[in-house]
């Protein structure tokens, strides 16, 4: 919360900007894709703002993943002075980064849900399925992020490289295009993208009001367990050297 307040402390309108930014994003996507480009989704021709709903579902949840991973990637470098001057459990820092990302995401999601209610496309009870998906996504980002954040202390190029990787990763995930629009050969390759079934599950909830097929998420569950173990092991084996490298 301190970081959230600090972000808007010097601005005249304060926390209003935390609502204005996501609201602007939804309005832009709705006007450009819904009205100007008149983009439509196969099978959803009768659903108003279908492409905007689809696009926002992917952009918002991907934004949480990218922000969480970006924060964790630099969490030890950004708090270098605090780590050197204070003695506290270093593992608290990733938890604070995730909570900060969740506050931003919560505001985005609230504005998005208001938009869905206004256009008459409220997801209903299926909205509860977002909770396990978010938990899985955050745990995946946590394990991967702790590993990258620790590695970034010793090899500073990791942070720069991940910025580029995230840009490619975004476009290799069906967020601004539909999964069914891809050729079968491309689908076969992109199935190895762990974020692909997760983003499709979010889009299915918000656009089609369907419960996710959780069986499709088992590869991501296994990958999450792998990165949690890898991140914890790597961090614990190097935590004593962090102060010397910072």
From TrEMBL:
Organism: Diaphorobacter ruginosibacter
Gene Ontology CC entries for this record: plasma membrane
Transmembrane keyword on record: yes
Compartment(s): Cell inner membrane; Cell membrane
Pfam families in the record: ABC2_membrane (PF01061)
InterPro entries: ABC2_TM, ABC2_TM_bact-type
Keyword entries, A-Z: Cell membrane, Membrane, Polysaccharide transport, Sugar transport, Transmembrane, Transmembrane helix, Transport
Listed transmembrane segments: 12-37, 49-70, 91-119, 125-149, 161-182, 217-236
Membrane-protein topology: Multi-pass membrane protein
Name of the molecule in the record: Transport permease protein
ABC transmembrane type-2 domain ranges (all copies): 13-238
GO molecular function terms attached to this record: ABC-type transporter activity
Family listed: Belongs to the ABC-2 integral membrane protein family.
UniProt GO BP: lipopolysaccharide transport; polysaccharide transport
Highest taxon of the lineage: Bacteria
Main localization (coarse): membrane
